[in-house]
Specification:
Number of domains: 2
Distance between the termini: 30 Å
Strand content: under 5%
Structural class: mainly alpha
Strand order of the largest sheet: 1-2
Oligomer: single chain
Radius of gyration: 24 Å
């Protein structure tokens, strides 16, 4: 049973709420405790990171293919630095996509390391992939950044282990 004013748990025979002092004559209601922000949004954040990272992987593969087909020496009258530049950029994007996929799967499994990794990726995404990465970074930080979220995620990870 819970107080209808402050939500504190009370006993059925209590006359007053121990937290807010409200008289509990007929104002005690039976309800389940409210789910936390992390519990409500964690699967959605994980799915967004998986989808975002899959799109990153496609972009990385496209860059590598373009670098190795269009900008190979002698094919196109283009500067010689484009082939290695696009190749290295494609490899970095593929690596970021792989880390994002691992972090998304880690969040779904409630791994302890996944929260930290996703927050780092969210900060990077704020500035590198505007507007979708920025939106995903803000949403991820809103869900996982507060101290209460850290405690809630750690409790979920402990239950999953």
């Amino acid at each position: 049973m819970y107080c209808d004013k402050c939500g504190a748990q009370v006993q059925p025979d209590q006359a007053f709420c121990s937290r807010c002092g409200k008289q509990l004559a007929n104002s005690v209601i039976a309800m389940l405790p409210r789910r936390g922000r992390v519990q409500e949004h964690l699967n959605l954040v994980a799915i967004f990171w998986l989808a975002f990272s899959a799109l990153d992987a496609v972009g990385g593969v496209v860059l590598i293919v373009i670098a190795n087909t269009l900008f190979v020496r002698g094919r196109v009258n283009a500067p010689t630095f484009l082939h290695p530049l696009l190749g290295v950029l494609g490899v970095f994007i593929l690596a970021k996509a792989g880390i994002g996929l691992a972090a998304g799967f880690g969040l779904m499994q409630h791994e302890t390391w996944a929260r930290t990794l996703v927050l780092i990726l969210a900060f990077i995404a704020l500035f590198t992939t505007i507007p979708f990465g920025t939106a995903l970074g803000i949403y991820t930080m809103w869900v996982l950044m507060p101290r209460e979220s850290e405690k809630e995620y750690d409790a979920m990870a402990a239950r999953a282990a």
